[in-house]
Design goal:
Helices cover about 15% and strands about 45% of the residues. The protein has about 180 residues and is α+β, with helices and mostly antiparallel strands.
Length: about 180
């Protein structure tokens, strides 16, 4: 009897510790300056998933300041942003095979270079141009509203990067 009561108490203690640990882990991501985020959706019958870290503006000048024009940017924070497509797609009219890619850009005032790099699992600043799978051009535009945090969206027409007062639509379509 005492043995059973002891085991029940021990099991209850274990469950409490497990629940507490899981709740701390959940709050850990929310407290990060650039918390992880994910956007997923369909472009035709292809599923597109974007995993990224979402930095905040925090009153800083983003375009041409924190993110300089004419230099490779990891398009997020921390680890490299990744784009996964489960079927072949066309990006701005060019073929991109199914797979997972790190996602970089070279921002410009009027036009951006958008880069899908074959090395997906890497720190965001370890970019190697020799590993590029695809480079395309896209035009930024003023966003309808201020976006304090970097966010991605997958739409029927492709992906959209939004941050501060700018958005960058990148056209995608099913492969032909």
């Amino acid at each position: 009897m005492k043995h059973t009561r002891f085991l029940n108490s021990l099991a209850l203690l274990f469950v409490c510790l497990l629940v507490t640990t899981v709740s701390w882990a959940q709050n850990e991501n929310a407290a990060k300056p650039s918390p992880p985020a994910e956007a997923t959706g369909k472009v035709g019958d292809a599923t597109v998933t974007i995993n990224y870290s979402s930095p905040a503006v925090k009153g800083r000048e983003i375009w041409g300041g924190l993110v300089p024009y004419g230099k490779v940017w990891r398009a997020g924070a921390n680890e490299a942003t990744t784009v996964t497509v489960d079927k072949d797609v066309m990006v701005e009219g060019k073929a991109l095979p199914a797979g997972t890619y790190s996602f970089y850009t070279i921002p410009g005032e009027d036009e951006w270079t958008v880069i899908f790099n074959k090395t997906a699992k890497q720190w965001g600043t370890q970019y190697d141009e020799k590993q590029d799978a695809l480079r395309v051009m896209a035009k930024p535009q003023k966003s309808a509203s201020m976006n304090e945090r970097l966010a991605y969206e997958v739409t029927d027409n492709g992906i959209v990067l939004r941050w501060e007062n700018m958005e960058l639509p990148v056209a995608m379509a099913p492969a032909k």
